[in-house]
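Propose amino acids for all 737 sites.
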């Protein structure tokens, strides 16, 4: 409601400003003559040599607004002697004369002229017209800014409106004066402004309105600053189960458990494993919220719960350290809850009351995550009361306790949307005693002992500290004040990251290849306090980065023709790496295009040997390899090979008697067997023929037995063989057919 009300107020203010623009223009133009007659600016030239101004004359306004047409505008001739007598009969002699006295000219309506007799052009009118336009602009801007502020417009709106009105009024007035000119004289750009219609007061007025509106649109920028917080959380199904039955309506696609549960938190499959599986709303009449109980397992060691009875009727639990002490400031505290049914839980530092659904959604943070589960874990790191007071610096913020006593309000909601109206409250206090503990570096963005790419001499590293601090580093372990390299650190308690730690960033330089590089870090806490009240590390945090050497690919394949007997052939890609950060250990990727984003990790990798099996059809192939080690060193190479498919069994090209044996020659490497009765036998059950030379697998021998018939079958290396009832050759001692 407040947003709509503010929008209405802004719209009303802008409309009032627009009306004001019209009023200012109307006021300016319709009183221009009377103003010009009354408001004059006198220039005192007593101290000047008036003879030097012999060409300078003056006249009153050249404009008169009455009918609104250019034909009604009165043109005033300029006397040859430079003295002008207005229509009211009052002579300007002695006042506007070029012979001594004061030179008088009207800024709002009059003009002074510098006459060039040879060209008969009034050049001197331009400055006066500019002055008149500026005067109109100034008055219009001042009035607009004042009224806009009174009407509730923002500072940006008021400024834009005043600038726009000033520009429109000034240009309209200048153009009008230039267009009307002086009878019998040429005025600078008079023809230009006349063609645009500025000689007509109404047209000039409309020109000014248009210019002002365009200027306002270009100048006004509605800006605001808002703090936006976003979280990347898993998608969650809607509450309840009113849409569960939708999953059963598709006759062509059975309802899976995944599809069922995506329709609602309370949807589930019944009759699992049978032909009557259905997705139904489980327990649709459930109106009981989850029961919350403190969970001991995740509680940080050395802490305990008190008053941890089950809710209801308990209002919550208190977390204490030791017997009955407050927890330490800037120290991670982990605690948890479990519920009697799967539930989604939230936690907030601000209590809110009510039973409507929006009360749960309005709570600020999820308790650990947004899953519906039985167990939930949360971790906090709370600041000391003193540091919190220093940060607030007197600012009144009742939501943030500065006495060190915290209440965290918890609600849990089940799959049907039922949540505990009465909040479960965790209470804890933070030790208010003065901080005497130096900062602790908890973690780093790059793990100490990690390798660095070959040839890289500097690396950006983040150090995560348990409290706001100033940190420095050096290549030797020194006192904090003697360390020469500073870091950019989070110095305010609200600059905590998602891990509830404070970040210090720096660039570590001087990294040497092929050796360990040692760095030492020390921190001093409470950046806003005097040095004598701050705690500093007396022992350095040791941090190591290891230099490396280039990674090499020393072997890869396949680099030959691959044969197979089926439509798709099994091909093994392989790579061997050496050197690098860990003596060749790397992760290798392959791609059939080499394009960025197309590389896939090999199945066997993270070693110095890397393999991947593929099923490829016949053709020529190029595969690209990219390997990366722990230091970020990379090596790339590619391999070309061909896949050929052989689906035909071996053919017998010759068969004859050689000495006391039957010799059979095949057209490819093969293994041959024979039977003595028919071709209808299993290949592996046949009598094996032998090789006379194991290195030559195309020559096969069997003992020659006159009168015996040999039913021979041959199988190649790819498994191709004759049909079960066929032979490669039938041979006998008397003939071969």
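Proposal:
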């Amino acid at each position: 409601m407040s947003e709509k009300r503010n929008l209405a107020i802004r719209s009303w203010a802008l409309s009032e400003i627009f009306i004001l623009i019209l009023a200012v223009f109307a006021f300016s133009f319709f009183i221009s003559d009377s103003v010009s007659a009354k408001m004059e600016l006198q220039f005192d030239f007593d101290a000047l040599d008036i003879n030097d101004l012999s060409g300078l004359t003056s006249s009153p306004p050249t404009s008169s607004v009455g009918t609104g047409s250019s034909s009604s505008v009165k043109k005033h001739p300029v006397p040859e002697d430079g003295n002008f007598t207005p229509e009211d009969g009052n002579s300007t002699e002695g006042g506007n004369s070029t012979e001594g006295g004061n030179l008088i000219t009207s800024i709002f309506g009059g003009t002074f002229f510098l006459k060039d007799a040879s060209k008969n052009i009034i050049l001197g009118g331009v400055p006066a017209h500019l002055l008149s336009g500026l005067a109109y602009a100034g008055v219009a801007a001042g009035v607009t800014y004042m009224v806009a502020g009174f009407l509730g417009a923002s500072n940006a709106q008021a400024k834009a409106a005043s600038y726009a009105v000033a520009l429109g009024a000034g240009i309209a007035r200048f153009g009008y004066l230039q267009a009307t000119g002086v009878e019998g004289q040429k005025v600078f750009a008079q023809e230009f402004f006349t063609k645009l219609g500025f000689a007509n007061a109404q047209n000039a007025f409309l020109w000014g309105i248009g210019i002002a509106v365009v200027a306002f649109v270009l100048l006004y920028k509605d800006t605001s600053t808002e703090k936006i917080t976003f979280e990347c959380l898993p998608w969650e199904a809607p509450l309840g189960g009113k849409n569960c039955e939708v999953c059963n309506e598709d006759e062509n696609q059975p309802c899976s458990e995944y599809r069922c549960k995506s329709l609602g938190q309370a949807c589930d499959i019944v009759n699992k494993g049978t032909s009557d599986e259905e997705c139904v709303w489980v327990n649709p009449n459930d109106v009981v919220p989850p029961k919350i109980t403190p969970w001991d397992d995740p509680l940080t060691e050395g802490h305990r719960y008190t008053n941890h009875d089950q809710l209801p009727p308990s209002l919550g639990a208190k977390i204490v350290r030791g017997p009955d002490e407050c927890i330490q400031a800037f120290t991670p505290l982990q605690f948890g809850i479990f519920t009697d049914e799967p539930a989604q839980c939230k936690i907030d530092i601000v209590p809110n009351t009510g039973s409507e659904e929006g009360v749960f959604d309005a709570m600020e943070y999820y308790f650990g995550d947004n899953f519906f589960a039985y167990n939930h874990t949360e971790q906090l790191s709370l600041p000391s009361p003193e540091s919190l007071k220093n940060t607030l610096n007197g600012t009144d913020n009742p939501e943030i306790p500065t006495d060190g006593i915290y209440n965290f309000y918890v609600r849990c909601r089940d799959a049907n949307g039922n949540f505990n109206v009465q909040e479960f409250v965790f209470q804890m206090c933070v030790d208010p005693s003065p901080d005497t503990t130096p900062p602790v570096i908890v973690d780093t963005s790059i793990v100490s002992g990690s390798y660095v790419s070959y040839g890289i001499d500097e690396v950006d590293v983040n150090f995560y500290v348990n409290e706001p601090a100033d940190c420095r580093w050096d290549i030797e372990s020194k006192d904090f004040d003697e360390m020469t390299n500073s870091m950019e650190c989070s110095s305010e308690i609200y600059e905590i990251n998602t891990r509830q730690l404070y970040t210090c960033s720096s660039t570590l330089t001087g990294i040497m290849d092929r050796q360990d590089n040692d760095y030492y870090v020390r921190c001093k806490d409470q950046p806003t306090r005097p040095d004598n009240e701050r705690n500093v590390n007396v022992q350095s945090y040791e941090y190591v980065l290891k230099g490396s050497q280039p990674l090499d690919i020393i072997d890869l394949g396949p680099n030959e023709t691959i044969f197979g007997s089926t439509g798709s052939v099994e091909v093994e890609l392989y790579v061997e790496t050496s050197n690098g950060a860990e003596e060749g250990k790397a992760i290798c990727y392959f791609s059939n295009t080499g394009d960025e984003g197309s590389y896939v990790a090999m199945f066997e990798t993270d070693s110095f040997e890397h393999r991947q099996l593929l099923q490829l059809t016949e053709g020529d192939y190029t595969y690209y390899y990219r390997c990366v080690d722990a230091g970020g060193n990379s090596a790339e190479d590619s391999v070309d090979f061909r896949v050929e498919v052989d689906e035909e069994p071996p053919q017998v090209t010759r068969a004859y008697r050689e000495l006391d044996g039957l010799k059979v020659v095949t057209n490819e490497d093969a293994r041959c067997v024979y039977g003595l009765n028919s071709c209808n036998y299993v290949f592996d059950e046949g009598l094996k023929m032998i090789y006379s030379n194991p290195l030559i697998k195309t020559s096969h021998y069997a003992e020659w037995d006159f009168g015996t018939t040999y039913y021979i079958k041959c199988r190649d290396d790819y498994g191709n063989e004759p049909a079960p009832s066929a032979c490669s050759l039938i041979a006998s001692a008397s003939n071969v057919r």
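The mean pLDDT is 80. Residues 2-30 form the longest helix (29 residues).
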